[in-house]
Design goal:
The complex is a heterodimer of chains A (377) and B (284). With 377 residues, chain A is an all-alpha fold. Helix content of chain A is 68%, strand content 2%. Chain A has one domain. Chain A has a two-stranded antiparallel ribbon with strand order 1-2. In chain A, helix 1 packs across helix 10 and helix 11 packs parallel to helix 15. The longest helix of chain A is centred in the middle third of the chain and has 38 residues. Chain A is globular. Chain B is of the alpha/beta class and 284 residues long. Chain B has 2 domains: 216 residues, P-loop containing nucleotide triphosphate hydrolases (Rossmann fold); 66 residues, no CATH class. In chain B, 30% of the residues lie in helices and 29% in strands. Chain B has a 6-stranded mixed beta sheet with strand order 6-7-8-3-9-10, with helices on both faces. In chain B, helix 4 crosses helix 5 and helix 5 crosses helix 6. Classes of the chains: A mainly alpha (377), B alpha/beta (284). The interface between A and B is medium-sized, with 23 and 29 residues.
């Protein structure tokens, strides 16, 4: 009952509705229309008849399409491709990082270990010819980064901010309405924090579903994916520009993901990351009465996490900071891959989200216990 | 029975209340003291909003902090600065607070209706409270405090900011609610409690100064309060209490330790005289 009433209070708050509308407006009017690519759209259309697996059959079906400049370009773009993972050795990446960053001791060892483990993933992909899928052909890096590096990153940032605002609004509601004395002296008392927390997380996830749902719906209306959904994200065309290695390298994921399952996996981690931001705001909101000050602290805390990595360079605190929600958000385009030179551990996004959830949940419990003992003046 | 044993509350080096011993059994207890004397501190300790730094507060022998929700379930509280959700109607607000007080939905609906009737807000129960007067808001406040039919009703300065008509109405309401429960009422307005308090509790220098029936407190000043229309004839020292006009003359009411019966008329002390006499230092 109380949970429902707290949720209603949040969902009907003008702040949430206005912020959600502004985010949707921004995404629908500015961010998404810019993501349209005519060639990618043609590839998606072609995939409906030619399928998504590269090879002779694919080339044959492309040749049968109505002749035009795009068809010819696609035929040329996809002709004679070989599996990028055949004989691919990941050790060169570890060597480049260790050399360029002067890594030694545990960091060097962990880095070698990570890429040794990644070799298994590369071998598996080589075995299944996973890279021989079309994705968006030569438009793939732009399209992949457009969805995962820009759109999803913007969406996750919006959801994180919304989650924090909603939590801080809920926790600061009684202070702003001057009802805290009445509420905390009632039977539920300070235990109302539990209801507020659950309601805020629920509201954040509802906002997450609405914001991401509507934005992606619009995105996929504009950007046709055809049979591309079944393509592997580790397609030969999907590459990462790696300055430390000095060349582009394949988008090599730990597991096999199609474009669809990769998006679903990203959404799943994004939802847990939103909960992390909610927890973080809860801890701040319990200690800081004023919601606006609380939000400022939330931003400073996250900025602080980003700064730690810069301050500590290639040392353990910097690597640990990569597991914080702020860095996980920033590194979103590399989720489910090795993560690059800043990451020492396999599956950093799962590790980071789990570690953040556990640590922040512990801090939430501690803060709530402290709040029970604190004078309400 | 609600009992305070040697209760002290300190904020750093500042002592807000020191070594308070009190018992509340039934009836209206008035906490009468000037602002800043510690009334709100005591009330906040009684509502578990703040915790004593020394001593203990017991309800039927159990410490209220340990009783936690079980204790808060039997109290009703109207804070001094009663806040409300401006965009809620009194009905919705009371239903929300019923949920906070863990009252089941059907009982909450019934009690909300009854209490809004009792405080005379039935006809505006669906209207948003942002347009309500101070008196109407205070009535919502007393209604919410009564939602759980509390055994202990705690009202902190409930008449502050009300006009005289609202104040009388409120006083009558409190009087009608005081049967079969402890009502603890904090005020610095003597007229609020003169007729309804069964006991008056006074604090001075952050310590308990008096805890007695109003008549007994007044009796403590017997023979010391006078009225005169020529204050210049009264030998110092004396304490000027109040003035009133009578037949074109200004009648001065004063208290004196000396016998002024020959030059002024001795009158029966009232609670206001006691208040002004006890807190004469704070007036200067």
């Amino acid at each position: 009952m109380l949970f429902r009433l707290e949720l209603k209070k949040i969902l009907l708050s003008p702040m949430l509705i206005v912020f959600l509308a502004l985010c949707l407006g921004f995404n629908l009017l500015i961010a998404i229309p810019g993501a349209y690519d005519e060639y990618a759209s043609f590839v998606a259309g072609a995939s409906k008849t030619a399928g998504y697996k590269l090879g002779a059959q694919f080339e044959e079906k492309i040749r049968k399409l109505e002749a035009d400049e795009m068809r010819d370009y696609l035929a040329e773009d996809t002709a004679g491709k070989t599996d990028v993972f055949d004989g691919y050795d990941t050790a060169y990446i570890a060597d480049a990082y260790i050399r360029r960053l002067n890594l030694s001791g545990y960091a060097a060892e962990a880095m070698r270990g990570k890429y040794a483990a990644l070799q298994n993933a590369a071998d598996d992909k080589a075995f299944t010819d996973e890279s021989l899928t079309v994705y968006f052909a030569s438009s793939t890096p732009d399209k992949h980064f457009g969805l995962h590096g820009i759109t999803m990153r913007v969406l996750i940032a919006q959801c994180g901010i919304l989650a924090a605002l909603v939590m801080l609004l809920s926790l600061g509601y009684e202070h702003m309405s001057r009802t805290s004395l009445t509420v905390y002296a009632a039977k539920t008392g300070r235990n109302i924090l539990r209801h507020k927390m659950l309601a805020s997380i629920s509201a954040a996830l509802i906002a997450f579903a609405v914001l991401i749902g509507l934005t992606l719906l619009a995105y996929f209306q504009i950007n046709d994916y055809g049979n591309i959904w079944k393509s592997s994200v580790s397609s030969i065309y999907n590459v990462i520009d790696d300055l430390l290695v000095g060349a582009s390298r394949p988008f090599l994921t730990w597991q096999s993901y199609t474009v669809l399952t990769y998006l679903l996996a990203v959404l799943c981690i994004a939802a847990f990351l939103t909960v992390c931001f909610s927890f973080m705001a809860f801890v701040i909101g319990v200690w800081v009465k004023n919601s606006y000050v609380g939000f400022l602290l939330f931003l400073i805390t996250n900025a602080g996490c980003l700064v730690i990595a810069i301050m500590f360079g290639a040392r353990l605190p910097a690597y640990l900071s990569m597991l914080t929600p702020a860095w996980l958000w920033l590194k979103q385009p590399l989720w489910f891959t090795d993560g690059g030179a800043d990451i020492l551990w396999k599956n950093f996004e799962i590790l980071g989200v789990c570690a953040s959830l556990i640590l922040l949940a512990g801090l939430c419990v501690f803060s709530a216990k402290m709040f029970k003992k604190r004078d309400i003046i | 029975m609600l009992m305070l044993n040697n209760v002290t509350k300190k904020y750093g080096s500042f002592t807000a209340l020191e070594d308070i011993n009190l018992e509340f059994k039934g009836g209206v207890y008035a906490l009468l003291a000037p602002n800043g004397a510690g009334k709100t501190t005591l009330i906040k300790m009684l509502t578990t909003l703040i915790f004593p730094t020394g001593g203990e507060i017991l309800w039927n022998g159990d410490e209220i902090v340990r009783l936690d929700a079980a204790y808060r379930g039997i109290i009703g509280y109207l804070p001094q600065d009663f806040g409300y959700y401006k965009n809620h109607s009194p009905r919705d607000f009371l239903l929300y607070l019923s949920a906070v007080k863990c009252i089941d939905r059907n009982t909450a609906k019934r009690k909300t209706e009854q209490l809004l009737e009792l405080v005379g807000l039935s006809d505006v129960q669906g209207k948003k409270m942002k347009k309500f007067s101070g008196g109407m808001i205070q009535r919502v406040g007393i209604a919410q405090a009564m939602l759980n039919d509390p055994k202990i009703l705690i009202l902190d300065e409930p008449t502050a900011g009300l006009d005289p008509k609202e104040r009388v109405r409120f006083r009558n309401l409190i009087s009608s609610l005081s049967k079969d429960r402890i009502v603890i009422l904090s005020t610095h307005i003597v007229s609020d409690i003169e007729t309804i308090a069964s006991r008056v509790i006074m604090f001075k220098d952050h310590k308990l100064f008096a805890n007695d029936e109003p008549a007994a407190l007044c009796a403590s000043l017997a023979g010391k309060v006078y009225e005169t229309d020529d204050i210049t004839a009264i030998p110092a020292p004396y304490l000027a209490l109040t003035e009133r006009q009578d037949g074109g003359k200004t009648i001065m009411r004063f208290a004196s330790e000396q016998d002024c019966g020959s030059i002024a008329q001795s009158v029966s002390p009232n609670l206001e005289d006691v208040f002004l006499y006890v807190y004469r230092d704070e007036r200067e």
